[in-house]
Amino acid sequence: MSKAILIALALASTMVQAGSFEGLSPVSRSVAARQAGSTGFSADANPDHTNATLYIWTDKYVYQPGEALTLRNTVKTNDPYPYTIVMYRQNNQTGKKVYLAANKTSDAAIDIYGRTFEEGFQPVRVADQTRAVTVGEGGWLIGSAMTIPSELGMHTITMELRDYTGSRVLKAAYFKIGVVDELVNIGGVISGDTTWVNTKAYKINSLTRVENGTLTIQPGTIVLGQPRTDDPTALIITTSAKINAQGTRSRPIIMTSSQPFGSRSREDWGGLVLLGKAKINVAAGTAFIEGLDSRPYLQYGGTDDTHDCGTLAYVRVEYGGSVFTVNNEINSFTWGACGSKTVAHHLQAHYGKDDTFEWFGGTSDLKYAVGSYSADDYADWQLGWRGRVQYLVGIQHPGVGLGNRGIEGDNSEFGATDQPASDPKVWNMTFIGPGVAAQDETTGDASPGIYLRRGSRGSINNVILTNFAYPAININGAATQLELTEGRLALNGILMWNNNRLKPELANTVEAQVTQNPAGTGVQTYAADPANKFVAADPMLTRHMEYSDPDFRPLLGSPALSPRWNAPPDDGFFDQWANFCGAFGSENWMEEWTSFLRDIDIAGPKQ
Prior knowledge:
7% of the residues lie in helices and 36% in strands. By secondary structure, the chain is mainly beta. The strands form eight sheets. It has a 15-stranded parallel β-sheet that branches. An eleven-stranded parallel β-sheet has the order 14-17-20-23-29-31-33-35-37-39-41. Among the domains are: 3-179, Macroglobulin (MG2) domain (Immunoglobulin-like, Sandwich), CATH 2.60.40.1930; 184-364, no CATH class. It is built from six helices and 44 strands.
């Protein structure tokens, strides 16, 4: 077998979806089947899905026209099937695709051998490979390098693993790059209406705040946070301002570290902070946001529960969490007293030092959220937050001190009965624990999947909890236990499995995976009530611990898909049809706009 074929066998891609070779008719598919048959593959050579793992990456996120790009990939096939392999670069502003093959590019659809559909695609069986160069020195596609075009804006490099006919995508892997003509330094005060465009990249060099206007960030814009040893670099939307950052699936807004790939770390910069004027349950009605200090512009809170902090859609915040003082870090995403007119959906917090998503009072909502490899909690609320969340997944890094709780829910550290009480409504969450001791609490049961304390109320529904070192659930404190007894705190539909990893002597049962402090049997009694639907069973997730390319969807036959689970309320926010347990049914809503790449997997030993 030739060297080119052997290299080609290592190329693969990610996710079941409709293909980009649009419009293949049944007749065309029949032709493709006959063409594939000539290679010796049977008509049922590919199933409806693939178990292959693949991730791809380049040298960096931001390029200028004329630069050379190196592309690498890692693939684990996990199956024997033949695939048609397709690769292209797409200009996400225009939709135009340039297909890539060995020593060749084409505006027409071709496979990696340069063959068109009419000529007959060349399906191959795919072998495993790690950190392989696809384009660049030592690579084989389009010669030795890919030259960045003069087309400014966000581009996507895509690798598709199709069935043997080439007519159906079984997996697709994506990497986003920004082609820009300028790197703009940002710092200090942004006053009045301002727009950041995707033809430029923005480097935040200080604690930066927006006042008296709206900061609009175009889809596909890349923002780089610069590490500092004094003030952290962070983006603060003050109470007199709004943010309008509406990315798309193909053009997410990426806020990330300015450091080279392989050298990035948690707390390279701060994160994104939105401050509003809704109610919080502190005596003065206002407070200074956690993670920073007491500068006047960092104050939040008020009486307007509809306050609009702006809109976030398809935004990734990576490598945030600067430490301002000891035990005082900035979260990846922070909402301080944001009101009900605030919009947030399709957000990812990746490699943060502190919490992924935290709410300090207010009434803002969140939908479609991803937390990956942060070092603290994944959904954290306090000071009277009364918002709603649906579809949130959190995966913790498998290392000591690299993850904490899935949910940390407080009413207030200042007074467990302070009003308005924290009373969120949350549905459809999946949390994957690290399986080892947590960052802050390395003894006892203080770092479970769900930790409710300090009098928090709320309704928590259809949640999967697995692989935590401690119990699945801990109801902490007499005030919180009273809220559960009185029905102001409710949990319904909890699927738990393989928790208590530090206590292997404990049975994998509901009773063993729920606890309370001070000790008692109240939570066990609650969990044992069939009406509350606490279940100890394997959720059968597709690939939840393939860390740079996870898939959290339940497999066919999973108890997460059984008809026992309740449907969310029909209130205009929740999807009432989502009567499954966990953040996913059959749809992978993370497709394309998220990234789970770990530097340890793409460049070396950093975690």
